[in-house]
Structure formats: C-alpha cells, structure tokens
Amino acid sequence: MEYYLLLIVYTQMVMSKKILLVDDDRLILEAVSAMLDYYGYDVKTVWRGEKVFETIGEFEPDLILMDVRLSGMDGRMLCKAIKSVNRIQDIPIILISGYGLNPDILHEPGAPNDFVLKPFDIADLLQSIERQLAA
User: Fold this and answer.
1) Which PROSITE patterns match (predicted)?
2) Where are the beta strands (DSSP E) in 17-130?
3) Which CATH number describes the domain made up of 16-134?
C-alpha cells in the first residue's frame, strides 16, 4: 500500500515534465520512452539530429536526453550548438553513450549537464534526470 501511495505522489510530481529523447536507435527510443512514460514523464522522441532544434521549438522540453553517436552527427557538437542559443541554453542536457566519455567534458563551454553510460541502470538514469530537473 505504501509503495502505491509513493508511486502516485512521485508520478504527480513529475507529471508534465517534458523530456526530449534523441537517439538514432529506434529500439532504444521505444524502450527508454516507455520507461519514462511509465514514470509519468511526457516524452517526445527524435531519431534524427537534424530535427532537434525544430522539435525543441515545438515541444519546449524541460530536459533533453541525447545519445552521443547519432547517424551523421555528434551529440556533443549538437549539445554545444543547443547551449549556444540564448533562449534554449538553460535546458538541461544529459548525454548517453555506450562509449566512455572523458569526464572533463562536463566542465567545457557548451557541456552537457550530465553523462550516463549505456547500458545504464534505470534507477541511475532516473536519478540523473531528477537531479537535473530539480536544479
């Protein structure tokens, strides 16, 4: 009973928080989107990096969760481009990747707000998301 009450309270807290999920792997998009939806987030998926700016304008996300390796694009460069636009630079960005990333990237200009290594533990990903949304 306590678990269900906590889940209801948690779901109400995150409800209406919008997450833009960017990955060129459609299976990852489906799985992570379903998981985030389950936890009460409003999720929009984009599988082509070229659509990110357009989707940010339409969807107005509270957070962007983006893969480092996108077909034909580098998520780190896309992150820097987003962080260089005044009206959207404060949207927290969490980069995800199956490849290690130098932790110093988090301190560079235009850096993501956080980094999560794939395969990730769902609890770790949710914790990172919650931390960024609370900041």
Assistant:
1) RESPONSE_REGULATORY
2) 18-22, 42-46, 63-67, 69-70, 73-74, 93-97, 114-117
3) 3.40.50.2300
